[in-house]
Amino acid sequence: MKNVTDPFLFLGFWPSAGSFGLNTDILATNPINLSVVLGVLIFFGKGVLSDLLDNRKQRILKTIRNSEELRGGALEQLEKARDRLRKIEMEADQFRVNGYSEIEREKLNLINSTYKTLEQLENYKNETIHFEQQRAINQVRQRVFQQALQGALGTLNSCLNNELHLRTINTNIGMFGTMKEIKG
Hints:
The protein has helices at residues 6-9, 26-94, 96-159, 162-183. By secondary structure, the chain is mainly alpha-helical. It holds the Pfam family ATP-synt_B.
């Protein structure tokens, strides 16, 4: 069985002036190739991913600001409703003899409708934030996958020509035959 570090140990035995050779040992070259591909993906994909995340962050922050503005409007409506409630209570003191129960019903209806409105606005804000977050995550995942795939295909297409491809296949077939003979 061949040791994984064997190709690196024989580097000292290569002549300093001689022909240039290509290491076709897959076990020695795959980690190097993978590290180069990963380095290129990280180097070139970092900026794009950062820009995508910043854009999504700005959209989400804008949605949150809009929701906060809606919430502020709802709070203003609540304050107006409370002012109106105070006025109604003053009128209730004046008309207590004539219809105290009617005024109480109006007050409760006003409070209930205001709270329902606030609750609906809060639910809408939360749903919008959740939807935007999920959409941003899905878009980033798609974009990263597409860019990684395009980068890997580009690297493979630029590095693998017909001659190298045939030599790699022949080497692998030879290694397979040798392994079969050793086992047989």
